[in-house]
Amino acid sequence: MTNNIYLLKWIREMEELVTPEKVIWINGSEIQLENLRQTACRSGDLVKLNQEKLPGCYLHRTNPNDAARVESSTFICTKSKEEAGPTNNWMQPKEAYKISYDLAKGSYKGKVMYVIPYMMGPVGSRFSKIGVEITDSVTVVLNMAIMTRTGQKVLDALGDSNDWVRGLHCSCNLDPEKRYVFHFPEDNTIISLNSNYEGNALLGKKCLALRLASYKGEKENWMAEHMLILGVQKPDGEIIYICAAFPSACGKTNLAMLIPPEMYKEKGYKVWCVGDDIAWLRKGKDGRLWAVNPENGFFGVASGTSEKSNPNAMQVTKKNTIFTNVVQNLDDNTVWWEGMDKNPPSHALDWKANPWDGKTSKQNGAHPNSRFTSPAKNCPSLSEKFDDPDGVPISAIIFGGRRAQTTPLVYESFDWNHGVFVGSVMSSETTAAATGKIGIVRHDPMAMLPFCGYNMSKYFQHWLDMGKFIGNKAPKIFNVNWFRTDDNGNFLWPGFSDNLRVLEWIINRCEDKTSANKTPIGYVPFASDINIQGLDISNSQLDSLLTVDNDLWKKEVQNIESFYEKFGDELPAELKNELSKLKERLQY
Ligand code: OXD
Ligand code: MN
User: Fold this and answer.
1) b/e string for 331-357 if b means 16 or more Cβ within 10 A?
2) Average pLDDT, consecutive stretches of 10 residues, N- to C-terminus, the chain (588 residues)
3) Is 451 in the pocket of ligand 1 (CB under 6 A)?
4) What is the CA(209)–ligand 1 centre distance, in A?
5) Which pairing describes strands 112-120 and 149-150: parallel, antiparallel, or unpaired?
6) Neighbouring C-beta atoms of residue 538, cutoff 10 Å
7) Three-state secondary structure of 215-240
8) Rounded distance between C-alpha atoms, residue 235 and residue 352, angstroms
9) Under CATH, which number does the domain 225-296+384-587 receive?
10) What is the CATH number of domain 298-377?
11) CA-CA distance, 384 to 380, in Å (whole number)?
């Protein structure tokens, strides 16, 4: 399939290391993938679902100890610890390679070594990057074939270049004590051991498209961000593109696939999805910031997804999808998860394959981080720019988190540097997407805490530098919070499709069509500028959503100060300055 000497040499070395029974190159053909699906069904890795109701769909159950990302086992392995910075786990490359090779040695015995050439980004785009992943897991191959562009066309694009990312994945025996996701940004290499959970094992996604790409972007004047990309088509037909960063499992897929409320549809609004998780951003020929989605599919959270929360995602999952850790309905061999509807099956298997009755069982049937892997082209609202090699021009960047208090529904930063400050102090309650306690408020700068492949202080500086590089054509930066609650813990904002009402305000601000209330934290909407027509929201509820409480913000400042201490003197002066200005505005 290729004569690339660098690639062939590496494959030979890896073959000698892992000693498989045979080697299969993934050419991306449907015949080959269908054979692999059959292999996976025979081995029990996949369960074939009802092909009339869910054509091309399969169920995958992970090992129960392996159902989410493990941040404690994720390492950045650079020569100096400083390069990884204070927010990443670091290991000496030499030590990490030794651990890796000891565990990998002979671990494919009796197995097939699959070689997956893949591309992140559209074929022919200057944004795109090539990787090659070696794996012993058929499910990983099938997931990669959905999430990336794979096969011969990638090798053709690679030619004889040595500019590609080496990725070795070994399932070993899924021992959580020996689970490692190692990144070697200086060597363009990723090694993942003892996990088959997609977030740890699909090496194109978090590992290449965020961790290694963010490292590269800093050196090459571009950015890799944990952001969805969407286009809002206005009644006049113009489409405004927006990127938004939220921590894992905070509704990025829902926002990316939003369907406008009836009233907005009637006016002629449409929302187009370009991507739901990752954006690569570069300065375009016109001087603006342009974004592409490097992925080719969606790896969405199933739990909570419903016809109400995300009808487009429900549509996305109806064909050619791999479901992970959901309930299997034994009556008609389909799937179910908590939050899908109020009609759980009573004759079913839970995500661990134990008999489960949705009417009487006390325990959840699906894992809270249950997932679907689906081709992007299944999305009814997929943007026609999805495959565009140039991507789309970005007018606004949104940061957001899950905060019960303090943060208003939406506010706009005063300028780029203040926007970078707002992103750098983002915090959110933790979710089931990573192992560990759920619901703890933690700082998650730009939603990149688990994904930034280098020193976070340098990353902040890179954001500040990009602002200078783009100058007055830079997008405006906003912060949103869909999750604010009243004193009884009830959500104040309906969320989901009604979030378009907030996007409308954001677009009006970008187009200078509306004024705003200047508060100590930024520009907050006047209540009369958020359209609540048709919503069951009182004026006092809206006021609460837009309130900036000085006392709570003074507490927030203390949290920010202790978070910033982590970075010591390396914290960019601009951010220290923004913090001082915030304190002044709060009249400390
Ligand atoms: C994801 C995550 O799977 O952020 O996208 O964990
Ligand atoms: Mn994500």
Assistant:
1) eebbbbbbbbeeebbeebbbbeeeebe
2) 97 98 97 98 98 98 96 97 98 98 98 98 94 98 98 96 98 98 98 97 98 98 98 98 94 96 97 98 98 98 95 98 98 98 97 96 96 98 97 98 92 98 94 84 95 98 98 98 91 96 98 98 98 94 95 95 96 98 92
3) no
4) 12
5) antiparallel
6) 11
7) HHHHHHCCEEECEEEEEEECCCCCEE
8) 48
9) 3.90.228.20
10) 2.170.8.10
11) 11
Q: Cα–Cα distance between 276 and 299 in angstroms, integer?
A: 9
Q: Specify the residue with its C-alpha closest to ligand 1, atom 1.
A: 248
Residues with CB under 5 A from ligand 2 (ion): 248, 277
Q: How far apart are CA 397 and CA 248, in angstroms?
A: 17
Alpha-carbon distance of 556 to 550, in angstroms, equals 9
Q: Is there a catalytic annotation at residue 243?
A: no
Residue 89 identity (one-letter amino acid): N
Q: What is the enclosing helix (H) or strand (E) of 58? A: strand 58-60
Q: Which of 250, 273, 379, 452 is catalytic?
A: 250
pLDDT of residue 404: 87
Of the candidates 535, 483, 239, the residue with the CA atom closest to the CA atom of residue 527:
535
The domain defined by 5-44+70-220 folds into Phosphoenolpyruvate Carboxykinase; domain 1 (3.40.449)
Q: Which ligand is nearest to the CA of 147?
A: 1
Phi/psi for 9 (5° steps) reads -65, -45
Q: Which of 398, 127, 446 is nearest to 243 (CA)?
A: 398
CA 10 to chain centre: 30
- Record the tokens describing residue 227, joined without a space: 């952001």
Tell me how many helices (H) and strands (E) the chain has.
Answer: 17, 31
Which H or E element spans position 82?
A: helix 81-84
pTM of this structure: 0.97
Answer yes or no: are the C-beta atoms of 502 and 480 closer than 8 Å: yes
CA dist 218 and 173 (Å) reads 36
Q: Whose CA is closest to 532, among 521, 519, 543, 548? A: 543
Ligand 1 contact, 251 CB (< 6 A): no
Q: Which residue has the tokens 């050196």?
A: 219
Instruction: Output the CA 199–ligand 1 centroid distance in Å.
Output: 6
Six-digit token string for 283: 């300065």
CA 9 to CA 535: how far, in whole Å? 62
Quote the pLDDT of residue 295.
98
Residue 333: predicted pLDDT: 98
Q: Which two tokens stand for residue 320?
A: 């050619």
Whether the CB-CB separation of 192 and 181 falls below 8 Å is answered with yes
Of the chain, the end-to-end C-alpha distance in Å amounts to 66
Nearest Cα to 395, choosing from 469, 273, 477, 501? 477
Domain boundaries, the chain: 5-44+70-220, 225-296+384-587, 298-377
